[in-house]
Backbone:
């Protein structure tokens, strides 16, 4: 895998992780969502007008475009496991921005993911 292809994959993964964090920020502004037949439209409108949610959806679209480019250049059996980097970025971002706990077990899982991706990238 060359540097350009790796860059498309990593940028797509980072945009996908950013999308998750923005969606979480948007839902924090809305609060817990409890849909009923009476409130589905107003809740949907409230969610759809949150700037972080709009930003998150935009990041998703951009990540899909980059992902398509990456898949045109590399085997899916190489590219797809690289998406697991998103778990690492999202966990760190959730800890940093939202104060979510990162236990010792989660840290160990992050290390396993990083080692796996490093081995995969070298193949």
Residues:
């Amino acid at each position: 895998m060359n540097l350009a292809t790796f860059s498309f994959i990593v940028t797509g993964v980072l945009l996908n992780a950013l999308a998750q964090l923005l969606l979480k920020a948007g839902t924090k502004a809305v609060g817990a969502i409890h849909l009923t037949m009476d409130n589905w439209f107003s809740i949907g409108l409230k969610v759809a007008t949150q700037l972080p949610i709009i930003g998150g959806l935009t990041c998703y679209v951009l990540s899909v475009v980059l992902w398509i480019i990456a898949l045109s250049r590399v085997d899916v059996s190489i590219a797809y496991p690289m998406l697991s980097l998103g778990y690492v970025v999202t966990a760190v971002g959730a800890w940093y921005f939202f104060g979510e706990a990162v236990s010792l077990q989660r840290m160990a899982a992050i290390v396993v993911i990083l080692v796996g991706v490093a081995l995969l990238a070298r193949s």
